[in-house]
Design a protein that fits this description.
disordered N terminus; eight-stranded parallel barrel; binds (3S,4R)-3-hydroxy-2-oxopiperidin-4-yl beta-D-xylopyranoside; globular; single chain; alpha/beta
């Protein structure tokens, strides 16, 4: 007994010390505060603080927010003469209250458009729409929304321009016009071009050409948003690194704006995030309906670790890393590209507990500093 007591005191003290230091550093935003913002995408319920536990997790871990859906044009501009800012007002107020970096997603995008927008068929009407839409929304939040996805997903996989309703009616001039209108409405807001798969070489070349052209024509582009809807084995770290280097060589910031890593089989080896692509489900395509096996949990943790290691190596070029959702239960990847699956793409699970991936991201900072 005599020997046990001092031993116990030492152990208890050690435990207490390590618990306190864990507490101090156990938050993504604090661990990475000198590197880049750590963001998340908020659902309507999260903006309205429907769940107190989720809310405290959001406030503890993240210092940047994007609205997952409510700032898309079908919600903010449902009819030609009608804007609806009820939810976006709440979103911005939430970010201000919690002193977070607020990102606006998105102004000009071919998906999740209001039905009336899809019917615009001539250039005069489209020009009027773009001017009214961008000016009204950006001015409304002037000085309050820190950065905008001015244009989202304008490119095809081969780097050519997507035949969107904007390109069809206005030609490629719509791109520079969008950036000019946004700058005029809020000269201080940071303006981004955002897309998926633009770390892949052909699409990356297209994105670089597009950004250069907008700049040459007098548009202000402050950054590129690489969405980062990725897989366990691709894209390669080499392609991601090349992208960081090549984009930042244009004199712009690089943000990873919608990061998640699917662990489920992909139909037709699908890459990217084209939200209109949908496939039939089957048991084979939904292998982990109850829980994620340890082996995959570990793979996910390793993948996140290597990605964040690379991000840290280039922290001087990276402005923000935003996860596409707070926790696995909320992820759009449970329903895309196949409805009703159970995916595990984020650092927090559906019960809000952190996963091994979270620890591996934090560990990179603990061992370094
Ligand atoms: C997704 C949302 O997460 C889903 O809830 C919605 O049903 C479809 O859109 N690229 C984007 C995001 O820029 O806006 C998309 O978000 C995912 C792909």
């Amino acid at each position: 007994m005599k020997f046990i007591k001092p031993y116990l005191v030492v152990v208890t003290t050690l435990l207490a010390v390590s618990c306190t230091s864990q507490k101090e550093t156990t938050s993504l935003k604090d661990a990475y505060k000198n590197d880049f913002y750590i963001g998340t995408a908020l659902s309507a319920d999260q903006i309205e603080v429907k769940n107190a536990k989720e809310d405290s997790l959001i406030r503890k871990e993240f210092n940047a927010i994007t609205a997952e859906n409510i700032m898309k044009s079908m919600y903010t501009h449902p009819q030609k003469d009608k804007y609806d800012f009820v939810m976006s007002d709440k979103f911005v107020a939430y970010g201000e209250k919690n002193k977070m970096f607020i990102h606006g997603h998105t102004l000009i995008w071919h998906s999740q458009l209001a039905p009336w927008m899809e019917k615009i068929a001539d250039s005069t009407e489209m020009k009027t729409f773009m001017k009214d839409h961008i000016t009204t929304i950006v001015s409304k939040y002037k000085g309050r929304i820190n950065s905008w996805d001015v244009v989202n997903e304008a490119l095809n996989e081969d780097g050519t321009l997507r035949q969107s309703v904007f390109l069809k009616t206005l030609g490629e001039k719509y791109l520079v016009d969008a950036f000019k209108l946004a700058e005029k409405a809020d000269p201080k807001a940071e303006l981004y071009y955002n897309d998926y798969n633009i770390e892949e070489s052909a699409k990356r070349a297209g994105a670089i050409a597009l950004i250069k052209k907008i700049k040459v024509e007098g548009g202000k582009v402050d950054g590129v948003g690489i969405q980062g809807h990725w897989r366990l084995n691709s894209p390669s770290l080499e392609e991601i690194e090349k992208s960081i280097l090549e984009y930042s060589a244009l004199g712009i910031k690089v943000a990873f704006t919608e990061l998640d890593i699917t662990v489920l089989p992909n139909p037709w080896d699908l890459k990217g995030a084209e939200i209109s692509q949908k496939f039939e489900g089957s048991e084979k395509m939904n292998p982990y309906p109850k829980a994620l096996p340890d082996s995959i949990q570990n793979k996910l943790a390793e993948r996140y670790e290597s990605i964040f290691k690379l991000f840290l190596k280039h922290k001087d070029k990276i402005s923000r890393v935003t996860f596409w959702g707070v926790h696995d239960g909320q992820s759009w990847l449970n329903d895309w590209p196949i409805k009703g699956r159970t995916n595990y793409p984020l650092p927090f699970d559906a019960t809000l507990r952190h996963k091994k991936a979270y620890e591996s991201i934090l560990k990179l900072k603990k061992t370094k500093e």
